Amino acid sequence: MRFRLTAFGLHLLGSACALSLVLGGLWLGWYHWPGWFLTGVTHVLWIVPVVDLVIGPALTLIIANPAKPRRELTRDIAMIATVQLVALSYGAATLWQGRPLYYAYSSDRLELVQASDLHADEIALARQQRSDLAPHWYSRVRWVWAALPENPDEAAKIVNGTLFGKGQDVIDMPRYFRPWTDGLTLLRKNLQPIGDIRYVSRNGKARLAARMQRMGLAAGERNAMIMWGNGKPLVAIFDPQSAQIRAILKGD
């Protein structure tokens, strides 16, 4: 039994180190709050640890028989490790493809922009026209202002395409992105009191107001804006004067 437990412990330690390295790097680089919530990646984050930290070491505990020939034992453990690596690679690839690249202010809301949202031709145009805000494979999450182009015809084309589902929204066109600070004056004008925020239930607004009071934030001021991703929205609370984000809270 001691042999089995030693093999189990070593396998669990190796799996935990590999998982922590991969998921920890993705979390620190792209998925820290509010990234993991807005992307809705919880299902992936559950599958990978179950395979790598539960099933894999448990199988090693079962098959680790000191009477088994070393060559056969090595082969069996290698097969288990291969399945684990496949699961870890799947999870890492899924998270990489859907990693947050921007939190974009557009019109009256904040929106998550993931790597999977951007087409290759738009990325190429962004690199040609605005290299400082264009996405690259190494890009970390950035806050930007997704402003409509100054040309009224181009702006109308984007708006109409979005409304009728025949074109991309401006948040999917990084060539039009501008620095976050450039949009703060307009953003301040579109802030709302918690009670006026749409897409949040009445009970949700009451909970938000109570939490804001506990945090020392004024619930009756025009200081809130909805923040969209995949699934339930969040609510960003700003300082009305400086437009600095004070908190990002769950709506419901």
Strand content: 5-15%
The average pLDDT is 88
Strand order of the largest sheet: 4-3-1-2-5-6-7
- N- to C-terminal distance: 49 Å
Determine the structural class based on helices, strands and strand pairing: alpha/beta
Low-pLDDT ranges: none
Coarse morphology: elongated
Give the SSE string: HHHHEEHEHEHHEEE
Helix proportion = 40-55%
- How many extended strands? 7
Count of DSSP-assigned helices: 8
Using the CA coordinates, give the radius of gyration.
24 Å
Structurally, the number of domains stands at 3
- Tell me about the biggest sheet? 7 strands, mixed
Mind sketching the topology for me?
Layout: H1 2-31, H2 35-39, H3 42-63, H4 70-97, E1 100-106, E2 109-114, H5 120-129, E3 142-146, H6 152-163, E4 177-179, H7 184-189, H8 202-214, E5 224-228, E6 234-238, E7 245-250
Parallel strand pairs: 1-3, 2-5
Antiparallel strand pairs: 1-2, 3-4, 5-6, 6-7
